[in-house]
Amino acid sequence: MVVDECTQVSLGGGYELAYAEAHNKEVHIFYRPNETQLSAMLSGNEYFKIHRYNSEDELLELIKKLWG
Questions:
Q1: How far apart are alpha carbons 54 and 46 in whole angstroms?
Q2: What is the pTM of this model?
Q3: In 3-state terms, the chain is what percent helix, strand and coil (to 5)?
Q4: Which strands, in side-by-side order, build the sheet including 27-31?
Q5: pLDDT score recorded for residue 10
Q6: CB-based contacts of 3-12 (< 8 A; 24+ apart in sequence)
Q7: What tens digit of pLDDT does each residue of 9-68 get?
Q8: Are β-strands 2-5 and 49-52 bridged in parallel, bridged antiparallel, or unpaired?
């Protein structure tokens, strides 16, 4: 499983996401919509599971739901 926080643009992160997809890894992308617009290359790719959050507490709740 790959988890990536994509609020800030990162070429290295994009490479890692493409690599994960090519190797059939589960990918979860987190970002803060009030601070950025997620790249269409990410948001338009149905392979990625996109999670929006607005606060650290909300992010932690999302992560708890993923890992139980």
A1: 22
A2: 0.89
A3: 40, 20, 40
A4: 2-5, 27-31, 49-52
A5: 85
A6: 3/27, 3/28, 3/30, 3/63, 4/28, 4/29, 4/30, 5/29, 5/30, 5/31, 6/30, 6/31, 6/38, 6/39, 6/42, 7/31, 7/32, 7/35, 7/36, 8/36, 9/36, 9/39
A7: 888 888 999 999 999 999 999 999 999 999 999 999 999 999 999 999 999 999 999 888
A8: unpaired
